Design the sequence.
């Protein structure tokens, strides 16, 4: 980044007053490193900066990926305050923007003409738990694409709904009791661990994986 | 007089004149450099325009008794005889007339006079144009033409100029006031009438635009002082002020375009009737100053089955860009990828993407006017120069994204929200054959209506050009729809939406590959007929969204 320094000399007391200003441009950037619970850099993490302005949004979420050294840089950011969010599902780090997964405040940075760049270190973790398995028709065994509704049982306002393929992988927050409901058009709702109504919750340790095969029962047609 | 020297052609500069020490009369001697004998013989056509004859308009300020006689002397400085064809053009009783001279044979290294005065006997014309042509080596003939009064005191030389179709011409300096005046003579050598525009520039950016109509073979004279003194309004109703003491002139087609072709011989002279002095003015053939080797734009890209423009352009002498698509032959080296219309077709330069890939498009300009700098002295170049520039450039024809598929749908509360929902959909952008579009710039063109939330805020979207998004290497992107805050009311408020997703191919080209319709409310999001939550009622994976 190139700067120009404007120095004003106040003759009376020979005071140097210097202001650093960005040379041209109306955008800035944020850069930093993503590390795991052990302090090691994590590669392949998707990082995004979201403007804090309460504006309705209908746009692409722009992600950049960390390199092998865990570093990232997001440029072309207009002036304003941003939250920095991350995700890497394959390593058990879900989208940090979702309150279902994380109550930890996201890192914030501010960009302006006098502070056109900002640095941030992001600590991932704890890891989520993995739920994986298959979704099939309980009668025919045919694979089914479905949707899942998961929620923290002690705070149902923290929820997530997601499309699932018949062979699915789902992340749930670790060390938190989670309810799980699977729905598909033409089938009765399915609740973990395999009932027609909410049953006992799921709870997993960080990084733990369990297999849950879902058998959906077709809705009986009324005679 | 013949001067020979053994050195480079440009190493010797010679000027000459004749003068009368006793009375102070003087005149220039035209000097010419003979072309080498081996040079090709070509036809050269020239004209000496506006030679004064007889009594002149009293407003020009000459002594009342003054009478002019035109003269024309030629010398053959080549090694072969020249057969000179010549004609005199003048206006008689408001009509353009002409009279041809018998062919004049001029042996090598000899001079001949053309008997103009005899031809004009009995004809009432105050100004005549002498047009002549010959076939020989370039510059084989030098000419001294002009007018002289009966006392030999007033000698007004007229320098011959080339006769051909050109772009506009400029005269870079005219003078008016303090006894001086500038007069321009224009002659139409064609057999078609012409409308011209004479734009006099003066002061700081001021112009006086004087239209002129020339009959076939017609001649016209413009005296700048007379224009000012008569207060003659120009085509914009402006008068030329007497305070405009100097300036320049552009002679262009009647529509004012400096690029359009005209066929007119222009000669000017700055004269002072009191001191009996006259100096010919210099003219410029306006044209291209330089030709880039590339077509514009470079590189050029467009989708398959679309048409776009390539331009053959040059830097005009005044810094503007001149496009000469219509005067160029165009070709493509790969018609399977791109075809281009050429001269004679409806839209030369219009390029059609026939198939994905890259082709080289070439253009070959024909007789493109070229800036020749100032033409001063006699006889000047026989015609304004033209060029045949070649330009080329790549045409990259791309496949067009045709639709997108729903890959994943996620619904949750928005960041920092307790109740307001957000829908995250991952779409995969595809070509018509089902293959992934890969990483491409995308943007959206939304239409919002029925906004019911209070307070209202501007909606954040990917505006084309200034805020493009990008698909990932697999052609996917994640699209968030949400009111994004709990701090609006009433509950359930929002807006309706039609959102066209476009491929940002260029500033001029953004084809739509998918259109989403629905609404975004605080408690629900509807997309193409599917409303969430619950997500199970949302768009299924694999759902196809078309333009």
Sequence:
């Amino acid at each position: 980044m190139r700067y120009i320094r404007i120095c004003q000399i106040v003759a009376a007391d020979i005071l140097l007053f210097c202001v650093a200003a960005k040379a041209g441009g109306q955008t800035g950037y944020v850069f930093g490193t993503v590390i795991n619970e052990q302090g090691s850099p994590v590669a392949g993490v998707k990082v995004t900066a979201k403007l804090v302005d309460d504006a309705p949004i209908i746009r692409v979420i722009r992600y950049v990926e960390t390199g092998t050294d865990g570093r990232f840089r997001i440029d072309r950011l207009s002036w304003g305050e941003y939250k920095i969010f991350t995700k890497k599902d394959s390593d058990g780090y879900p989208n940090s923007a979702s309150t279902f997964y994380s109550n930890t405040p996201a890192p914030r940075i501010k960009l302006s003409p006098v502070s056109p760049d900002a640095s941030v270190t992001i600590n991932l973790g704890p890891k989520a738990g993995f739920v994986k398995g298959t979704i099939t028709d309980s009668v025919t065994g045919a694979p089914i694409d479905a949707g899942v509704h998961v929620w923290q049982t002690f705070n149902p306002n923290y929820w997530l709904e997601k499309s699932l393929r018949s062979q699915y992988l789902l992340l749930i927050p670790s060390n938190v009791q989670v309810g799980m409901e699977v729905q598909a058009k033409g089938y009765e709702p399915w609740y973990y661990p395999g009932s027609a109504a909410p049953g006992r919750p799921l709870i997993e340790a960080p990084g733990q994986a369990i297999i849950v095969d879902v058998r959906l029962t077709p809705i009986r047609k009324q005679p | 007089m013949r001067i020979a020297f053994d050195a480079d052609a440009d190493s010797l500069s010679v000027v000459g004149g004749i003068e009368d020490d006793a009375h102070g009369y003087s005149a220039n001697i035209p000097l010419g450099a003979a072309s080498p004998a081996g040079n090709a013989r070509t036809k050269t056509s020239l004209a000496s325009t506006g030679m004064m004859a007889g009594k002149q308009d009293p407003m020009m300020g000459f002594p009342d008794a003054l009478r002019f006689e035109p003269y024309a002397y030629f010398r053959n400085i080549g090694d072969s005889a020249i057969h000179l064809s010549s004609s005199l053009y003048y206006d008689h009783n408001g009509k353009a007339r002409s009279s041809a001279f018998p062919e004049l044979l001029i042996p090598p290294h000899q001079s001949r006079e053309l008997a103009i005065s005899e031809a004009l006997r009995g004809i009432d014309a105050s100004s005549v144009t002498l047009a002549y042509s010959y076939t020989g080596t370039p510059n084989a003939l030098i000419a001294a033409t002009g007018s002289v009064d009966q006392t030999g005191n007033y000698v007004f030389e007229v320098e011959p100029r080339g006769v051909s179709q050109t772009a506009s011409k400029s005269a870079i300096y005219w003078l008016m006031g303090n006894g001086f005046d500038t007069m321009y003579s224009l002659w139409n050598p064609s057999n078609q009438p012409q409308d011209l525009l004479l734009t006099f520039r003066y002061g700081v950016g001021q112009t006086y635009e004087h239209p002129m109509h020339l009959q076939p073979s017609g001649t016209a004279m413009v005296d700048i002082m007379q224009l000012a003194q008569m207060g003659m309004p120009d085509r914009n109703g402006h008068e030329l002020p007497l305070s405009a003491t100097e300036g320049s002139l552009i002679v262009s087609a009647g529509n004012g375009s400096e690029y359009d072709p005209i066929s007119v011989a222009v000669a000017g002279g700055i004269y002072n009737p009191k001191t009996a002095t006259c100096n010919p003015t210099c003219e410029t053939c306006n044209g291209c100053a330089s030709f880039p080797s590339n077509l514009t734009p470079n590189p050029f890209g467009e989708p398959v089955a679309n048409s776009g423009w390539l331009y053959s352009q040059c830097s005009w002498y005044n810094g503007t860009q001149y496009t000469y698509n219509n005067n160029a032959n165009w070709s493509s080296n790969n018609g399977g990828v791109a075809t281009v219309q050429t001269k004679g077709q409806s839209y030369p330069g219009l390029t059609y993407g026939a198939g994905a890939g890259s082709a080289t498009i070439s253009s070959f300009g024909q007789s493109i006017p070229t800036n020749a700098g100032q033409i001063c002295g006699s006889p000047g170049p026989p015609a304004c120069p033209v060029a045949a520039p070649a330009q080329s450039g790549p045409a990259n024809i791309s496949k067009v994204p045709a639709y997108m598929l729903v890959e994943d749908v996620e619904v949750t509360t928005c960041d920092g929200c307790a109740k307001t929902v957000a829908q995250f959909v991952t779409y995969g952008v595809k070509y018509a054959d089902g293959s992934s579009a890969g990483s491409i710039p995308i943007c959206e063109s939304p239409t919002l209506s029925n906004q019911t939330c209070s307070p209202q805020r501007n909606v954040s979207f990917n505006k084309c050009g200034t805020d493009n998004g990008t698909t990932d290497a697999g052609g996917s992107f994640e699209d968030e729809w949400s009111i994004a805050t709990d701090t609006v009311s009433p509950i359930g408020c929002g807006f309706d939406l039609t959102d066209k997703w476009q491929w940002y191919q260029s500033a001029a080209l953004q084809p739509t590959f998918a259109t989403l319709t629905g609404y975004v409310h605080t408690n629900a999001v509807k997309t193409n007929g599917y409303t969430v939550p619950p997500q199970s009622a949302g768009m299924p994976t694999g759902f196809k969204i078309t333009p």
Q: What stands out?
A: Confidence is low (pLDDT under 50) at residues 1-24 of chain A. The interface with chain B takes residues 50-51, 53-63, 83, 85, 97-100, 106, 145-149, 157-163, 165, 183-185 of chain A (CB under 8 Å). Residues 129-216 of chain A form a domain with the Immunoglobulin-like fold (CATH 2.60.40.1120). The first strand of chain A starts at residue 3 and ends at 10.
